[in-house]
Amino acid sequence: EEPNNSELLDDDLPSTSSPPSIESTNDIPSARQIVSIGSASDAYAFTFHEEELNAILAKIPVGWKVCVVSVVGAFRTGKSFLLSWFLRYLETQCVNRRSSAEGDGRKWYERVQTLNQHEGSFDWRGGTERNTTGMWMWSDPYFLPRNEGEEVAVLLVDTQGMFDHDTTVGLTAAIFGLSTLLSSYQIYNVDKRIQEDNLQQLALFSEYGRMALEAEAKAAGVDKDVQVSKQDAPSTKADTLTAPFQKIEFLVRDWQNFDTEDETDIASMEAEMAAYLGHVLAERAASDLKETRDQIHSCFEEVSCFMMTHPGFAVVKNKYEGDVNKIERLFLSLLDRYCQRVFDTTGSDSSPPRLQPKTVRGRELSAVELGTYIKSYAQMFEQIGAHFPKAETMLEATSKANNTNAVAAGIDAYIQLMNDVAGPQASDYHRPEEMELKHREASERALATFDGMANFGSRKAIQDARKAVLKKIEKDYQVFLSLNDGRNPLLGFETYLLPMVVAFF
Ligand code: GDP
Ligand code: MG
C-alpha cells in the first residue's frame, strides 16, 4: 500500500525557518532515553521518545552537520564506562566548552580524579544488577572543529541490554539495527577477542543494510532481472550502490596479547590491531564464513579495530567508584589514543577525518534531517516490534524521511531566494511582472533542489511530495506578494489620491 504522502508531509514537515524552542524542565546534562524496550503489558514493546530526541537536536545550530557515535555490544562490557570517558575528553576538546584548567602540563585524563558513576556520566555501574534496556543519547551535543571555520556537532549514543538471554533476537536486532541506521561511527564493543559469533551477529544485524540496498535497486528499477545477492551486492552496481553504512569499529576490551606493552609506543600496538583485524576478516574457505565477511563489507564503508587492555582489577570490583588513580596506565594511554582517533573530525595531510557527519546515500545530514530519519526508523520498529523488517518496510521508512527532508529543502530554497527579493527585510518594491519572474525562478530552484534529493522510493510518494512543495510555495508566494504590495509607493496614491488629483484638474 502506498503511504499517503501529502498527509504525512503536512504533519511531519520539519520546521526549518524558525529556530526550535528549547524548553527543558531538566537542564542538567545527562543521558536521555530515546528508546525504551518493554512496557507493563508487553515486555517486547519498542517505544521511541521523540520529545527527548527533539530537545537534543534543537541544541544544534540550524544547518550544521551532525556526527553520531554509537556504542553497541553485550551487557556489562564497559560501554557506558567508555562513553563517560568520551564525555570527559570532549569537555576538554570541544569548542563550545573548552575547560579553563588547560595548560598545566597534565593530560586531559590526568585532570579527572574520579570518573563519576552517575552525575555527568552515562550510568556505568559495578555489581551485576541489570539496567533497563534501551537507547540513550547524551543531552548535549559537542561541537568540534572541521575544516577551516566550519564546525560539526557530535552526539553520543549508548545502548543497553543487548545480547543477554532474556532479550529476544528480534529486539536485539532492532536496537543494533537502529544504532546502525542512525550512527556515522558505530563501535561494536566485544570482550577479549572478535569471535565468529560477533561477526555473525553483525552480519545478521547489518542485514538491514543489505535489504535497503536490494530495495533501492528494485525501486530504481534499473534492471528487474539483476538480483542483488549477498555475494555480488558491492560489485554489480558498485558505481551507484555504495555501502549504506559508514563505519563499524570493533573495540576489543581486555585484550591480553600485545607483543609490546610499552605505553609510549601505542603506534606499534595499533599495527598489531590492524594485523589482527586483517587476520579475522581474511577470506575463509568455508563458504558460510566467507558470506558473513562479504555481508559485513557490503554494508559498511569501513571496518576497523581498536584494542584496550584490562583497566586493572580495582575497576572490576563491585565497590569501585571511579577513582582514576586505580586505573592501569596502559589502559589510560590507549584510552587517550582512542579518544583522539574517534573524535578526529579534521584528519591530517595523509588521512581523511575518521569521524564524519552522518550521511544517507552520500549526503551529509543536518540535525533536522537526522531527526526525520531517526523518527521514521523508530516508528518502523515501533510497528514491527520484535519482527525483522521486510525490505519494503525499510525502504518505505527511508524514502518517507527522505521525501520529507527533500520537501523542506525545496521550500527552503524557494524562501531563501524570495526573501532577498520581497522578504520582511527587503526594502524595494517590485512590479508585478518582476515578482512573477522571481517567483518562477525560485520555484525552479525549489523543484531542482527537491528533485536532487527525492530520488528513491515509490514514484507515487515522490510525486505527492513534489506536489506538496508546489502547494506550499504557491501559499508562500501570496505572502511575498502582499509584503511587496506593502512597499508600493503608489499604493494609496493610486486608489485615493490619484482620483482626487484628476478630479481637481
Ligand atoms: P555496560 O553494561 O557495557 O554499559 O558496562 P558498564 O560501563 O556499566 O561497566 C560494567 C562494569 O565493567 C563496571 O564495573 C566497570 O567498572 C567495568 N569495566 C569498565 N571498563 C572495563 C574494561 O575495559 N574491562 C573490564 N573487565 N571491566 C570494565
Ligand atoms: Mg551501560
Automatic annotation (TrEMBL):
Domain of life: Eukaryota
Keyword hit for Manganese: no
Keyword check for Transmembrane helix: yes
Transmembrane annotation, as ranges: 490-505
Keywords, ordered alphabetically: GTP-binding, Hydrolase, Membrane, Nucleotide-binding, Transmembrane, Transmembrane helix
UniProt biased composition (Acidic residues): 1-13
Region described as Disordered: spans on this chain: 1-29
GO molecular function: GTP binding; hydrolase activity
Record domain GB1/RHD3-type G: where: 63-347
Similarity field: Belongs to the TRAFAC class dynamin-like GTPase superfamily. GB1/RHD3 GTPase family.
Name of the protein this chain belongs to: GB1/RHD3-type G domain-containing protein
